[in-house]
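Bit of a strange request maybe. I'm writing a small parser for structure token strings and I need a real example to test against, not something I typed by hand. Could someone generate the tokens for this chain?
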Amino acid sequence: MNLATLEQEGRVWKRRALSGASLAILDAAIAVEDRPGQRLNALDGLAEINALAACLLPNARPVRIIAFNKTQDANWALPWHQDRVIALKERVETPAFENWTNKDGVWHAEPPIEFLQRMIFARVHLDSADPENGCLQLALKTHAQGRIAVSTADSVANAACVEDCVAERGDALFAKALILHRSSPSRTNTNRRAIRIDYCADPLPPPLEWAA
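Reply from user aminoacidic:
Good idea to test on real output. This should exercise your parser:
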């Protein structure tokens, strides 16, 4: 993997990142419910992905894990957006940590933008992904524009090079946390399972703690 590509484009791919043994562990470990995402506190089978993340972000640790399965029965679309919140164990009012929300019993807050600029996420594909089953789309290089308002996300993305994240089972995508992304509904009756892992190397200001 090329760190320069991650910094310049906002993403880098590792094709065939997972061994068959790791994929089998993940297949058995996730039972995704009929909703957009299932949050997980821990997950076996990610050692290879964690090692790759550490190559791109030294001392990276997984701080949030979400499993997805998009089908015609559990289907959704997301507009262009940035993911700007982190999952925390408790709500503790802390300078520059804003927009607190509680999602499924887990507290989330938006940290300072400098914090997010140093984070990455991985997307591990347990099934193939393409435009037919609602694969992720990235607006390349938009991670470098800092905080992008919801009202301007479409225009910023439309001015960028948009990539369909076409993937095979076992492929892994690593991306900067602030890159604009979206996905369309699936038009097939097949599974489109994926796991997203957020990574951070920075410590949280006490007394904040990661939820994961």
